[in-house]
Task: structure prediction
Amino acid sequence: MDLFRIAGISLNVADVGRAMSFYAALGFTATGAGVMDFGGTQLELTAATGAPYPEPRVANDPWFQHFAIAVADIESAASAVLAAGATPISRAGPQLLPPNTGSVTAYKFRDPDGHPLELSLIPGSAWLRDAAPGAAFLGVDHTAIAVADLAASQAWYEARGFREIGQSRNTGPEQDRLDGLDGVVVDIVALAPPGPGPHLELLCYRRPPTAPPQRIADGDIAATRMLVTGSGSAIDLDGHRIVSADPPRPDQGAMASAI
Result:
């Protein structure tokens, strides 16, 4: 069994071909029907059988989950995603966040189905050190999920092998513009799985208040799934789906119910 790691993200989409064209513009390469790859991180695109992404769409929805793509030139990357059909979440373009957050420049947007994504320019990162000349999109840095109880969610993931690698409280006009909201106060904890690859960020919005939770069915477009290797499948405390990316073994019956 592989060392437990985040292998990728699985999205429900209205039109698989359209989604593959969109994500190709963000640096992903098709490896099969509805399957793409970027530097070893998989993107699985499945035809939705349920409801479209809920309206209204805001950055502190309880079902919010994005994944962030590291970039070398965020202005050109933001222009490219908009040209490919993205809808902005952030106001006034990419935002340089304060030093207490790592001085990251970030930009949030939605794909044609409403899935949220982020571009991240991370100073001093291996992404920039190892970037190929002229590259704009570099790879998937992390996935981030909205949580209602930060301590409880952190404990849940740490009990399953994650470890804290950073935390911050983000607030101020830059965060407001990034999230397309007003008066934002969001606590963020970054967690790394035991294996290499993308990490996980927990987003707990203190302000503004979040919408009431609603049931997201498996076939709905908002039913994003985090793909993991070396582990089974689970649903976390906030309803986010975690799905095993390992091929089934001949002696394996039902998937494990928890990672």
Observations:
- Residues 252-259 have pLDDT under 50 and may be disordered.
